[in-house]
């Protein structure tokens, strides 16, 4: 599922080496920027055919571990990590401040195709049915990975949850979904959410759910396709072991509910098994995100 790869270069270890690599405009394509203040820094860059660099902060190691876990345990197309996460070497702090780069990166194979969000409105009904069928099989395979704890693939507590700030992440794993729900109740209470809102959210989150492996951000931006063929799933930053309803709720993120995506979701989940949980969880996560990052 990956592109042919040119290995005729050394992965940079310093800012100077990275700057030289990115200067080659004939082979470098910036796929995504990370907006910072009035400027922008590269987030995802194609540096050679088949080779992607993803830049970030100092916590990319967790994303690499998540990607490797998913690739080793699932029979679905997932990028292969080519270079583990590393911090770029800067001679001094001023060089970092003026570099125009995020301070760390890792390298991975590029998955063929384009992200689903860029073509979803152009797909035929047959294409959407095919993609939905492939998504159902992927979700089935992911659901076969079980754990008796809710937490990260490392076996410890979650290292990232979409919408939740790093400084309030759980300090330990959860043994039950009830403990998982209570964590969010405490979080909402601590940040002074109205009690009536908290009770309404909590009443929509069941405690009798099973625990399953979850991508955590399985949205059109992270689903790669070529026509009607699903060629890969990318960005495993938020994966881990969550209640079974979590994936469904995240896939129904209101920011991504285009007509085409709703049509595909209707084919993937014709019985809408988590219709109550999805809006409550989306509201909770989006509101917490605004609280932490506004």
From TrEMBL:
The lineage of its organism: Eukaryota, Fungi, Dikarya, Basidiomycota, Agaricomycotina. It comes from Gymnopilus dilepis. Gene3D superfamilies: 3.30.200.150, 3.90.1200.10. It holds the Pfam family APH. Residues 52-264 form the Aminoglycoside phosphotransferase domain. This is Aminoglycoside phosphotransferase domain-containing protein. InterPro entries: AGP_Transferase (IPR051678), Aminoglycoside_PTrfase (IPR002575), Kinase-like_dom_sf (IPR011009).
């Amino acid at each position: 599922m990956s592109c042919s790869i040119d290995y005729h270069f050394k992965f940079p270890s310093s800012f100077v080496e990275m700057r030289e690599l990115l200067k080659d405009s004939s082979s470098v394509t910036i796929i995504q920027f990370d907006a910072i203040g009035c400027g922008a820094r590269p987030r995802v860059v194609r540096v050679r055919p088949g080779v992607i660099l993803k830049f970030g902060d100092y916590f990319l190691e967790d994303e690499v571990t998540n990607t490797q876990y998913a690739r080793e345990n699932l029979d679905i197309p997932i990028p292969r990590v080519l270079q583990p996460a590393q911090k770029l070497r800067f001679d001094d702090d001023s060089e970092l401040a003026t570099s125009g780069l995020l301070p760390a990166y890792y390298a991975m194979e590029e998955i063929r195709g384009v992200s689903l969000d860029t073509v979803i409105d152009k797909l035929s009904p047959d294409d959407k049915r095919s993609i939905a069928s492939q998504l159902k099989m992927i979700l089935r395979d992911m659901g076969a990975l079980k754990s008796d704890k809710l937490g990260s693939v490392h076996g410890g507590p979650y290292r990232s949850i979409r919408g939740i700030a790093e400084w309030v992440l759980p300090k330990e794993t959860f043994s039950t979904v009830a403990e998982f729900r209570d964590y969010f109740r405490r979080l909402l209470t601590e940040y002074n959410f109205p009690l009536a809102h908290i009770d309404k959210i909590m009443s929509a989150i069941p405690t009798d759910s099973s625990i399953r492996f979850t991508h955590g951000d399985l949205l059109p931006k992270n689903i790669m396709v070529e026509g009607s063929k699903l060629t890969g799933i990318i960005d495993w930053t938020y994966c881990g072991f969550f209640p079974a309803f979590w994936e469904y709720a995240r896939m129904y993120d209101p920011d991504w509910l285009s007509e085409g995506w709703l049509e595909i979701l209707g084919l993937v989940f014709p019985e809408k098994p988590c219709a109550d949980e999805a809006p409550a969880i989306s509201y909770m996560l989006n509101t917490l995100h605004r609280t932490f990052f506004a």
